[in-house]
Amino acid sequence: MLYEKQPKPLDEQIAQLKSRGLAITDEHYARHYLKNVSYYRLAGYWWPMQEDKINHVFKPHSCFEDVIALYSFDSELRLLVFNAIERIEIGLRTRLINHLAHEFDPWWFENPLIFKSSSAFHANLNVIDRDLKKTKEVFIGEHYRKYHSDSRRPPAWKTLEVVSFGLLSKLYGNLGSDVASKDIIAAELNTVNHTYLRTWLQAISQIRNICAHHGRLWNKNLPGRPKLLPKPPASWVRNVPPVSEHHMLYVHLCCMKYLLDAICPGHRFSRKLTALLAKYPTVDLAALGFPGGWQTEPLWIY
Known about the structure:
About 55% of the residues lie in helices and about 0% in strands. The chain contains twelve helices and two strands; from the N terminus they run αααββααααααααα. It has a two-stranded antiparallel sheet with strand order 1-2.
């Protein structure tokens, strides 16, 4: 079967949406968004508004303004989450550099003996080499110029500054179980041991990639599944989301907030999230996995 749909001008896009039951009272407003955001990107936000997803017929009282409100909410949510992940990423990077450099040496990431999987070790080194090659950071270029006779890569405090959060999480996850720093880092982040932290980092790195590529967080089936602690040592939620809801954003936000409490006490993530939700009261929080009364949970109290 060949794909035969042809592109439609903006006026035809608007006419098609109206014919399917989406109320559009201001066509100039709709044309502006369809011109600057695109039909297909916005479709992810009006999809739940359709009662017939085969013929794309909208539910009664569906309107274009609600689609844009949902799109705007998701955009602001993505920025809030990305900022939180940045702090977590820097906190993890700093701990990997410091603890492992002291336990082993500044080139611990080149040591195959401290990692579980040889194939993962070599794959991670290949990514490191790629990142070192493409980076424009002056300190990396200066290092190679000054120490051109040293066959080793720059030390961890230089090299790890130019790699991604995803690579950091893979380095951590591949560390051998007998590496003391692995559990020390987990303990500092109140996740007890590496068994739990590894899954949190993997899930958060995937969400970071979604944010970095301007993907949708609202009503998203997220790929990561964090392994939750049965008795967390720090403030947590009484109403723990069941495993069947771990694909939704709320449980991941809980993990991020928990890590932020350890990494940067005094952060304003809870306040900013509460303010964002208040700004968009029509957003369906159930689509994000938020339970009723979530604001009263010990984890989320300011």
